[in-house]
């Protein structure tokens, strides 16, 4: 056993050979830990003087670092920050508080959206910016801007679920429709009403809706027929076990309607609301964004205004489950074209802002004609139409002669049940609706006798 040799401060130490366990990473960190505190004491002016002297000296970083007492890695870091940020890069860098690097216009747009819609989340704001003015901002960047503006994120504890959520989605539109009923109170009339809707499973597009004072099977049938008129026949319809859809004896009117049209009826298992999860999610959005704060004049006003919200949901509201697209993009088979157009707008937004400043209100329209997708969007003062298989061309839009004086009719298919018949006019006491007929009969009998 060899004896331990005494340590000699002047004895050179041979570094271990490469490949035999040399701790390269930890050794570098240890060396920087010894020298960095001295470098941290220098002011930004002194760092600039050291950096300038090093560049004029022509010495390697390792030799010059020994002269000034800082690590060569610190010299390299100062040089890189000076080249990227100028003299400001030599200021003290506070870790974890770098701040948002988004343009000022994007920051203002994020704060304006949050102020106008306090319930919007970071991903929702990111999707709205991409679809509207074409400003690129990830959900994380939106969160940093809101945090710098004083918004505080609240963490809500979640409850454990007994099983993980299983999701499904049909491959194309009109393969499967989901339907369900939702009820709420008209505040002004203190009257309970019932809303039924049919949703396409693939696109989340609401193909038909109806609002009535009773939850009757006739309402479901009228909405279903209105949806077919607007969007065509589905292959399957998914419902719950409500009496509007199934009966315990024989076949319901809704089941007979499906059988007559050759549509398969899929019934969810009892006490399993997650089977109709997509339309249940729509009810939640409708309540939070419209019904909870709205005050309707009467049933007709509620029918029309809910129809306009459904139009907004179908054609304007980005959906997180659709990668920021709207249901209409998927339903009309235009999702790839729309996604490409949005990416192009976001990519060109920086150049557009540099040339023209604050963007105008966006104009964008997409759809399908004759089985081919098309899109219409604005480029400055021009309106461009792009159609599948054809070259893009400029078109003219003619505004309407006069603005409508009444609220426009919603685009969504609307089923109406006409059960409220008009009441006859009241008759005065002692007068019967049969009096006139009796007088005519009496006159005819007297004329026959004569």
Largest beta sheet: strand ordering: 5-4-1-2-3-10
H/E topology pattern? HHHHHHHEEEHEHEHHHHEEEEEH
Gross CATH architecture of the largest domain: 2-Layer Sandwich
Q: What's the overall average pLDDT, rounded?
A: 74
Q: Which topology of the largest domain does CATH recognise?
A: Nucleotidyltransferase, domain 5
Task: Report on this structure.
With 450 residues, this protein is α/β, with parallel strands linked by helices. The protein has four domains: 28-90; 104-148; 176-322, Nucleotidyltransferase, domain 5; 327-397, no CATH class. Helices cover 41% and strands 14% of the residues. It contains 14 helices and ten strands. A six-stranded mixed β-sheet has the order 5-4-1-2-3-10, with helices on both faces. Mean pLDDT is 74; it is low at 1-7, 11-35 and 420-424.
